[in-house]
Amino acid sequence: MTLPMGLRIAALTAACAAVLTAPLPAQAVPAFDATAPVPASGATAPTPALGPAAPAPVLRGGTDDRPLTGLAAGVRLGWEPKATGVSARLRGLSAVDRRVVWASGSAGTVIRTVDGGRTWQNVSPTGTQSLQFRDIEAFGPDSAVVLSIGEGADSRVYRTDDGGRTWAETFRNDEPRAFYDCMAFFDRRNGLAMSDPVDGRFRILSTRDGGRTWRVLPPDGMPEALPGEAGFAASGQCLTTSGGRDAWMASGGAARARVFHSGDRGRTWTVADTPIPGGDPAKGVFGLAFRGPRHGIAVGGDYRTGEASPSAAATTRDGGATWTEADAPPPAYRSGVSLLPHAALAVGPTGSDVSFTGGRSWHTFDTGSFDTVACTADLSCWASGEQGRLARLRLLR
Fold first, then answer.
1. This prediction's pTM
2. Assign residue 12 a region: left if phi > 0, alpha if psi is -120 to 50, beta otherwise?
3. Which residues of the chain register pLDDT less than 50?
4. I need a surface site. Which of 85, 109, 173, 395 has the fewest CB within 10 A?
5. Domain coordinates of the chain in residue numbers?
6. pLDDT in tens, 138-187
7. Angle at 388 (CA atoms; ends 39, 230), nearest 5 degrees
8. Which Gene3D superfamilies match (predicted)?
C-alpha cells in the first residue's frame, strides 16, 4: 500500500543520506558515490494502467515533514497514476514543485495541475489540434512556454501568463529545412530552442524575455553536424541547462551519438562522442540531465520496439568533454532522465529505473511505459507518456 499523503518523496533523499552515513546491510543498495555527484522538466478519463512493479532497491530510515516510523521492513519506489482527462501522448513535462505541474503532447494538448495532481485542467491553445507539443517549460501556476515540433511552420512557440486561459504565439519557424526538437531555460528570462541541422549545423534559437520574442543565433559557433545527425523530440530533454550559462544538446541518427556543450548561452559549442551507440537513424542520445557545470547523465539507445539497447546510459564528470558508459545501464532504451540530490531516475517505454551511484548502475523498479520524467527542488518526481498517462513517484511499503 502507499504511505499516507503527508509522506512525500523527500523521504527518498533522506533515506539515501542515511545510507551514506550508516553501515550497509548486505541487501541494501550501494551508497551514492559522493565523489561523483549526480547531475542535477471535461470528462474524467479512466486511470491508465501502469506496469507491474519490478524488484526494487530497498531504502531504510529517513525523515520527511515528520519522522518516518514503521519502515523497518524497507521502502520501495512506485508510480501513483493520476487521471488527467486526456488521451494525448504527453512527451512534454515541466514540474514546478510538488503542487504545480504542466504537461503537453499530441493533438495540441496542454494540461496543468495546481493541487499536486488531484485535479487537472485542459488548457490547450485554441486551433492547435494539428500540432505536437513535445516540450514545455513552466515558471509557475500561471506562466509557461510550449514548443511544437515539425518541419517548417509546424515548429512554433506559444506562451501563457494566465494559467493557459489565453496563449500568444511568439515564434513560427519560416525556414522549411528547420525542425525544432527541444527547448530549455536558464532562468525565467533566458532560454534556448534547438533545431535539426540547417546547412550542415544545428540551429539555435534564443530568447532573453521568457519566450516572448526569439532570434536565431549565428551558426559560426556550432560544430559541423555529421551526416544524418539530428535531435530526438521524444521527451523534451534533448536540450538541458544548468546554472546561468551552460547548456548541453543531445544528438543521434549518425555514425556516432554525441553531446554538444555551450558555456555562453548557446553562442559557441564544443562536441564529444558518447558510448551510447549510434550508426542508425533510430539510435542515439535522447535525454540529458546535469547538476552543475561538470556532472551529467545521458540516456538513450534504439527506440524501435524489440531492438536491443545494451549501452543505454553514460556519465560525465567534466562537463561533457568525455563520457563513460554505465557499468550496469538500464536494460532497454530510455528517453527521459531526471535528478534528485542523491538519486537519478530514467524512464522509457519498457520501464523506469533508479540509480544511487551517480548514474553508473541502475535498478528497474517499474515496467510501465513513460516518455519523460521531471523532479522538483522540493523533491517530488513526475512521469508522463502515452494515452494521457501521468504519475507521481511514491514510496511504497
1. 0.84
2. alpha
3. 1-50, 55-74
4. 85
5. 34-54+81-396
6. 999 999 999 999 999 999 999 999 999 999 999 999 999 999 999 999 99
7. 50
8. YVTN repeat-like/Quinoprotein amine dehydrogenase
